[in-house]
Amino acid sequence: MSGAERSADPGDARAVAVRALEAEFSELITHFRRLIMENANRVSPGMLPGAYKTLTTIARCGEVNASALAERMLIDKGQVSRMVRELEGLGLIERSPDPADGRSFLLRLTAIGEQRLAEAREPQEGLLMRNLAGWSVADIGNLTRLLHALSSGATPDSED
Asked: Domain ranges in the chain?
């Protein structure tokens, strides 16, 4: 089979398309890692990306116990404990007793934590909006639909 015949094979075309998609995801991940590192340093110079991710996860949850945080972040409780101690030491989060479980505690951002996180995020606020400014609403909707299908392992609904 010649190279031209192989490139006409739908299986090869799919493999080429999937590799191209993987490369684009790799670039996107690199871009987001850079943003996370920059934001972490703006919150507190030298802060590791994992601590920043912990901080932002607590912010999204509003209040969360350490077990749920570990589960949500897909990390072990020991790592959560270390990051919680670091964030508490910086005055960014606080803990209070969990009324549902006396052995546990709830984590939430302090006012300083909320302020520092908002300030760290400010340079990137609107970045997605600016990047998508030239896109049609339909294209944004299609991307959202396709990413949801990919992340959930579903086959995308057709746009009939």
From this structure: 3-125
